[in-house]
Design a protein that fits this description.
By secondary structure, the chain is an alpha+beta fold. Helix content is 28%, strand content 32%. It is built from four helices and eight strands, in the order E-H-E-H-E-E-H-E-H-E-E-E. The protein has helices at residues 19-29, 52-64, 95-108, 134-146, and strands at 8-12, 40-43, 69-80, 85-93, 126-132, 151-155, 157-163, 171-178. The strands form two sheets. Strands 2-1-7-8 form a four-stranded antiparallel sheet. A four-stranded antiparallel sheet has the order 5-4-3-6, with helices on both faces. Strand 3 and strand 4 form a beta hairpin. The model has no long low-confidence stretch (mean pLDDT 96).
Length: 180
């Protein structure tokens, strides 16, 4: 079975004009703001960057069968990781469109199914921060929601990203693959 690594991923990256309100939240609440750009994870862990040429061909075929689609980041939600630890995130709507894309990509690289192995399966989300404690997570979610203006954009491509070696240890886009 091919290797997978936590140094690469296949993701949806919102257009840069959508970043300012997302990054304003992430700078305050996301300990990974430096490492990751705003994104919706589709496949992670993923194949090593040395395999991107071969994998991109298969992903390109899967992406060609999916028409570009519009999503809106309107609502905040949270995952509980146990012991009062939470991740807060924006829910892309319609979630089904993102799930269909993820399913197509996963079919092209079937061993990269980790995000589908969670209880409840793949859950499209854009992480914006972490909180500790049930009340703190609920309060932060309500606070974020009360000041949020929905963002809408067209998903027209996926990005294959890879992490630079330490000490930088930051994800960068290696290549993009168009939908449709």
């Amino acid at each position: 079975m091919p290797d997978k690594t936590h140094h690469t991923a296949a993701v949806i990256i919102p257009p840069q004009e959508c970043w300012p309100p997302i990054q304003a939240i992430r700078r305050l609440h996301d300990r990974q703001v430096r490492r990751w750009m705003p994104h919706i994870t589709l496949l992670y862990p993923f194949r090593p960057a040395s395999e991107f040429d071969a994998v991109a061909e298969r992903l390109g075929q899967a992406c060609a069968a999916v028409a570009p689609f519009e999503i809106t980041l309107r609502r905040f939600d949270r995952f509980c990781h146990g012991r009062g630890r939470y991740t807060l995130w924006l829910a892309p709507e319609p979630a089904e469109a993102v799930s269909r894309l993820q399913s197509s990509l996963q079919a092209a690289v079937s061993d990269c199914d980790d995000v589908s192995q969670y209880l409840g399966g793949f859950s499209p989300h854009l992480s914006v921060g972490q909180a500790t404690g049930d009340d703190a997570a609920a309060d932060l979610q309500a606070e974020l929601q009360s000041g949020w203006q929905p963002l809408t954009f067209v998903v027209s491509q996926i990005s294959l990203i890879r992490r630079s070696p330490p000490p930088a240890d930051v994800f960068r886009v290696d290549r993009c693959i168009a939908l449709g």
